[in-house]
Design brief:
This protein is an alpha+beta fold. Helix content is about 25%, strand content about 25%. The strands form five sheets. The protein has a seven-stranded mixed beta sheet with strand order 1-2-18-15-19-13-14. The longest helix has 26 residues. The chain is elongated and about 115 Å long. The protein starts with 7 loop residues before the first strand and ends with a helix.
Length: about 375
């Protein structure tokens, strides 16, 4: 199937208006070094500003909440110290923080501790106990963290609930604590690490975990807090479709965020040299859908798709193909040679010609 040259426009990649929309026409862009450089710059400039909370844990301190269990130790006063034995843990015998944020402690009575740090609670208890004990030495610890939780879902080994503790819990920490991402083999993962979603206070943030792992940039390694939901989506929608004159047309997954044109053609068995026109390799990239919401009015505008053309018969074609990164839902199409297209037309007409000949013979 040949592309309709009347509806195509060959764009000059040095033209800054390469993305201009054409009425009733598609845009073909020759795949060369200039195109690849422009695409890389455009992708870098268009990278969305995540607007994520700053992952600053220098001032992090845990604050006690309802359902936490505290272990209070008063040195030299075992009668005031939380008892624990061989079959009883401190979590079972400690001071449970009630729903109203209070605990009961001997001599002192009811003490409000919710929202306070361990040091603040220690000072309160020491001050109140000083009425009964001379210079009390008090230590307060959390025996069980139960008040604050983070939820990890999606393509991790052990999705579930993680407690927020006195140790700062970041995005990478949470994924690791959930057993890491699921693997389909030794290295391939089922997870889409480029679009991990963090839901906080009704807002959804997209976090590129893959960039953190590969590039070492931890600016998106957000400090998690109570009520956060961290979802690792699957990778099954990140597919590229290879069709036309290749040996094995296929839908290929983009693993670990990277799949080049050369890799896609290789995974599809390569170009069929007997039937393909090596000079006519196309990558069809659908237009992105931009949605603007203004109160109850939604305006959707679809941009025209782009078609990138690679002349695979040129000497530098393999280098260019290896540098051209595909995106989800790209279609790689290898056109048939003209003689093959003509042969297929004749094959389709052969049945009709034979039928006409039979009819003529019968009517004589």
């Amino acid at each position: 199937m040949a592309l309709d040259e009347d509806r195509l426009h060959l764009a000059d990649t040095t033209d800054p208006g390469i993305e201009a929309e054409y009425e009733n026409r598609l845009t073909i862009v020759p795949l060369n070094a200039s195109t690849i450089l422009q695409l890389a710059r455009r992708e870098l400039e268009a990278r969305p500003k995540a607007g994520l909370p700053v992952p600053d844990d220098q001032g992090y301190v845990y604050r006690v909440g309802p359902q936490d269990v505290l272990q209070v130790t008063v040195w030299d006063h075992p009668e005031l110290t939380t008892p624990a034995g061989q079959f009883r843990t401190a979590a079972e015998t400690g001071n449970l923080v009630r729903q109203d944020g209070t605990i009961f402690y001997p001599y002192i009575g009811v003490v409000h501790v919710a929202g306070k740090t361990l040091e603040e609670i220690r000072q309160i208890l020491a001050e109140k106990l000083s009425r009964y004990i001379e210079k009390p030495q008090v230590d307060v610890r959390v025996a069980a963290y139960r008040s604050q939780k983070v939820y990890v879902t999606g393509e991790v080994v052990k999705p579930g609930v993680l407690p927020v503790t006195d140790a700062p819990l970041h995005v990478l920490d949470a994924i690791q604590a959930a057993g890491g991402v699921r693997l389909t083999g030794q290295t391939a993962t089922e997870a889409d690490l480029e679009h991990v979603r963090l839901t906080r206070d009704g807002r959804v943030y997209t976090i590129n975990v893959l960039a953190m792992l590969l590039g070492g940039d931890l600016s998106s390694n957000v400090l998690l807090r109570d009520g956060d939901v961290l979802h690792v989506p699957d990778n099954f929608t990140n597919k590229v479709f290879v069709m036309g004159e290749v040996k094995t047309p296929a839908a290929l997954l983009i693993h670990n965020g990277r799949l080049t044109l050369a890799e896609a053609l290789s995974e599809a068995g390569g170009v069929n040299m007997e039937t393909a026109d090596a000079g006519q390799v196309y990558v069809i990239r659908g237009g992105e859908l931009a949605v603007n919401t203004d109160d109850k009015v939604e305006i959707a505008k679809a941009f025209k798709p782009m078609i990138y053309h690679l002349d695979a018969s040129s000497p530098d074609a393999l280098i260019l193909a290896d540098q051209f990164r595909l995106k989800p839902h790209d279609v790689v199409f290898v056109s048939a040679a003209p003689i093959v297209r003509w042969g297929r037309v004749l094959n389709q007409l052969q049945g009709t010609i034979q039928s006409i000949a039979v009819i003529r013979a019968l009517t004589k």
